[in-house]
């Protein structure tokens, strides 16, 4: 059993930084994750369709990279923030929506601090990326699995910033 846990820890220690680097590479930003600001966006790659903001609907696809409990908590907080911003979320899997949002999450850290990295790609019905939201949130440190250091406060900040940026993009 000890050999299994030792091997698992070694694999996790190698996999977490590799995932963070992969997410940083997806961002199209040459800076390592430590230099990514708390939240920022990139210009639209494809023109935004002329859908009135009050008619647009959004469907968040299942998040990639996060354990189920973290993904569920972030989904709930994004839902609450979306209601506060008067955004219309579609909750059923596969239901029609004006935009789909693909979320990618990673956590990295040590005993003193943990960082949540997030990327949300807003895509149209054809899968074309229209907008990207990038960010990171700090949380208390943890020993072992960095996801155990990601608290509700960090998830709430990520949800607030992401939904505010989504609303600003939609209403521009």
Automatic annotation (TrEMBL):
<keyword id="KW-0732">Signal</keyword>
<protein>
    <recommendedName>
        <fullName>Lipoprotein</fullName>
    </recommendedName>
</protein>
<feature type="signal peptide">
    <location>
        <begin position="1"/>
        <end position="27"/>
    </location>
</feature>
């Amino acid at each position: 059993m000890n050999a299994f846990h030792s091997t698992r820890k070694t694999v996790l220690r190698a996999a977490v930084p590799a995932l963070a680097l992969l997410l940083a590479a997806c961002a199209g930003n040459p800076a390592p994750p430590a230099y990514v600001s708390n939240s920022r966006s990139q210009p639209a790659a494809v023109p935004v369709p002329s859908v009135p903001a009050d008619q647009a609907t959004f469907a968040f696809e299942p998040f990639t990279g996060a354990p189920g409990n973290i993904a569920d908590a972030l989904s709930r907080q994004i839902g609450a923030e979306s209601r506060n911003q008067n955004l219309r979320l579609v909750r059923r899997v596969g239901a029609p929506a004006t935009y789909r949002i693909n979320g990618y999450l990673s956590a990295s850290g040590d005993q003193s601090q943990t960082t949540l990295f997030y990327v949300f790609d807003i895509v149209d019905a054809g899968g074309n990326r229209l907008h990207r939201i990038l960010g990171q949130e700090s949380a208390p440190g943890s020993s072992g699995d960095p996801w155990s250091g990601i608290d509700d406060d960090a998830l709430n900040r990520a949800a607030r910033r992401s939904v505010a940026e989504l609303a600003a993009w939609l209403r521009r």
